[in-house]
Amino acid sequence: FLPSSASSDSFLQCLSTVIPSELVFTQSSSGFTSVLQSSVQNPKFITNTTVRPLFIVTASDVSHVQAAVRCGRTNGVRIRVRSGGHDYEGLSYRSVQPEVFAVLDLARLRGVHLSPGEGSAWVDAGTTLGELYYAVGTTNPGFLFPGGVCATVGVSGFVSGGGIGLMMRKYGVGGDNVLDAKIINANGDVLDRAAMGEDVFWAIRGGSGESFGVVVAWRLKLSPVPTTVTVVNNVRTLEQGAPDLLAKWESTILSPLNIPDLTTRVVLQGRVAIFQTLYLGRCTDLLDTVLNVFPELGMTSGDCNEMSWLRAMAFIYFGNTTTPVEVLLNRTNYVAGHYYKAKSDYVRRAVGSAGWSSLYQQWLSKNGNGKMVLEPHGGAVGGANTATASPYPHRRGVLFNIQYGSDWCCDANGTMAAAGLAWLDGIYGFMGPFVTSNPREAYANYRDLDLGKNVIGQDGLSSYWSGRVWAERYFMGNYRRLAAAKAMADPGDYFRNEQTIPPLPK
Ligand code: FDA
């Protein structure tokens, strides 16, 4: 994989036998920049110093993916696969170190294939969650897929890193809901579940994207949903007792509020806590439960918004009842254009009112652009049988996941960036005593290169030992099993980035 113009020419020549030229972009093509930027979420990764791909292949057919892998492998060009482009460190379209690579963009390879009344769907890899929600909600309205909040996230990245959201307490994480998949291996062959084997099939359902091959389609399980669900946003300020409410909320997650149909996540920003509830049923039943176990929240029937599941997905994403559900089909993130960095944690012991109070006083109220999102676990995700569940390891005993986010405008490396990053490091340090340790768990899909990067060994492979540093925080005891699956699926480590699973040494 040494840079050479000869191998670049051969790569293009090789592609041209299978892929129409209008689907392949070189750095000198007029459309290169707009295609590269088409799904970039964070302008931090498209500056003058970003290591960009030499080529972009916008595959519209599985044969194009096969050709890209075969031609890349033969000619020393690595492939970075991009589906929705939401990777928090931009690793689907940029490299941290200088490297010869092509982006294999799957946005054209999208579509949802389902029939009314059927509890599963084949979903092409480039489909976004919003496109999936729309297809399921309009064609198969009695069913849902338990996805995340942001409609522009790619199904492939979501499932490949676990996939958490407001429906996981009832149905498990995204990776628990995959029935079959089609993957292109490093030889360019198409393998389904039977052909790839159960070890690799287990690994692709949450063991991190890019590591095991290119997924071109997923068969996803769809689950029944009532005709009417209820969504509620309760906004409470510091002055209205947000720390006490948070303390009560966290003490109810696993019991007595461990009701899988009911999920209340919380967004903390400035002096405010927004309690966002999704209940898979009607308002009267929701109130019966909440008023019993969490009356302090003060939820009333006037707060309830009853609607279809599809409409609820739009409400949760757009924050209103008026945006048409068709806007879920828009692949451009409506918050695109802002710079940000995220980190994550897991909490297994309640933080308590005093802890929340200090957090507000010392950190949240000092930065209006800093945010924390608390995603409750329990229910199906916490009770999963770890022997059969997908690689997502943060299950039994986890109260909630924390995502910390810091946003700033308008520079990648200037004063605003420094202030935003310093705030993030500070709040992450403050939370240390309240969260898990040894390892300090982190969520793979909230990718964070501060946790570590792979080192390439003298054998030319990503080192298993360097991977332990970051991967045991994402995957805990599942890391070794994932590395064994990598050694089976891609022993030569062709598919790799700074945080892909290294092959288990022999
Ligand atoms: P992208 O295309 O960047 O890919 C991410 C990784 O997967 C890369 O390593 C890529 O190479 C690899 N990959 C992509 N397609 C592949 C394929 N077909 N085969 C093999 N590897 C592939 N998460 C969550 O669980 N719940 C949530 O609610 C949210 N919400 C959210 C909102 C916003 C605004 C952002 C930016 C992110 C989230 N996330 C999230 C995190 C999200 O799940 C995570 O970033 C996913 O990896 C994004 O998947 P994409 O396909 O969009 O990313």
From TrEMBL:
SUPFAM superfamilies found in the cross-reference section: FAD-binding/transporter-associated domain-like
Single annotated GO MF: FAD binding
Domain of life: Eukaryota
Cofactor(s) listed in the protein's UniProt record: FAD
Pfam families: BBE, FAD_binding_4
Record keywords: FAD, Flavoprotein, Glycoprotein, Signal
Residue stretches making up the FAD-binding PCMH-type domain: 49-225
PANTHER family in the cross-refs: OS08G0158400 PROTEIN
Family: Belongs to the oxygen-dependent FAD-linked oxidoreductase family.
Protein name, UniProt field: FAD-binding PCMH-type domain-containing protein
Organism: Digitaria exilis
Organism classification: Eukaryota, Viridiplantae, Streptophyta, Embryophyta, Tracheophyta
